[in-house]
Amino acid sequence: MTLIVLLIALVLDFFLEGMEKLRNKKWWIQFYYFLENKIGHHAFWSGPLGVLAVLFLPMLLVILLQVYFDYWSWLIEAIFSLLILVYCLAPKKLDERLEQYITAIETENTEDKSKLESELIYEELATGENIELDVIKSTYIEAQQRIFSVIFWFLLLGAPGAILYKLVSILSRELTGIRSGLVDSLFDLLHILEWPVSRLMVLGMALAGHLMDALNAWRSAEAISLDVNNKVLINGGQGALQYEEGEDASEDKAYWIKELKSLINRTLIIWLVVVAMMTLSGNLG
């Protein structure tokens, strides 16, 4: 059933229009600031207990609903899980933006290209020296957040796992650049949630691209720290892609972006094949 729900969620996202409009994030950001105004002055707020306080109500609601629906009908519980997964899992948006970026490069539409770069590039990864490389690095991170982390935690913990990662990810992006005990604890939780995903994603990209280069790049970036997740992911991805800065590998100006898009899609397919094999072997529900 888990695999079926996952496949349906992917099909709905890719083939139904307007799905992104249903993924309203404002309620969650507003809820956070509401709690901050109400209880932010208490000592416990600045630390792990503050993160727990923010996540407690939405997580409790999802868990109670899942238990309730599962008690009455497995079908209703499956539909509930599907709705949560559709809200959290959003591969089409990234795929569309990469395709639009490719088109903007090929048609030399500088206005659209600049607009898409501002959307695709993460501020903390922006160097301004090589825009193409900035886009590629940011895409690895966004693919992890939009696709692979959601899938991993859904497979492990069901709907509560998917929504937990999504809520932590959204809030982390909102509070980037802010220093406080709560924000530090929130990023610690994000790093914990992403630690296994970044490694499994590199393995998937290694199988989808250049195996040894990806694994060697992973080893060179690995360290006993939760802060190296993005470095491991980016280095492993670059090894799998075999991106070489400044190389004119093709007359196609968008060559590396097309290769990147293809690599992400192949990695997703490999993940789905592994999930299918685990389901058929009885190791996954």
Proportion of beta-strand residues: under 5%
Order of helices and strands: HHHHHHHHHHHH
Outline the low-pLDDT stretches: none
Give the strand tally: 0
The Rg value, from CA coordinates, equals 20 Å
Classify the secondary structure makeup into a structural class: mainly alpha
Shape: globular
- Tally the helices: what do you get? 12
How far from one another are the termini?
Answer: 6 Å
How confident is the prediction overall: mean pLDDT? 90
Q: Would you kindly provide a written description of the structure presented here, covering whatever features stand out?
A:
The chain is an all-alpha fold. The protein has one domain (2-280). It has twelve helices and no strands. It has helices spanning 2-15, 26-39, 48-72, 74-88, 91-106, 110-120, 131-157, 159-174, 181-208, 211-221, 229-241, 255-280.
What key attributes describe this structure?
single chain; 285 residues; mainly alpha; 12 helices; 76% helix; 0% strand; globular
Compact summary:
The protein contains twelve helices and no strands.
How is the secondary structure organized here?
Elements: H1 2-15, H2 26-39, H3 48-72, H4 74-88, H5 91-106, H6 110-120, H7 131-157, H8 159-174, H9 181-208, H10 211-221, H11 229-241, H12 255-280
Helix pairs in contact: 1-4, 3-4, 3-8, 3-9, 4-8, 5-6, 7-8, 7-9, 7-11, 7-12, 8-9, 9-10, 9-11, 9-12, 10-11
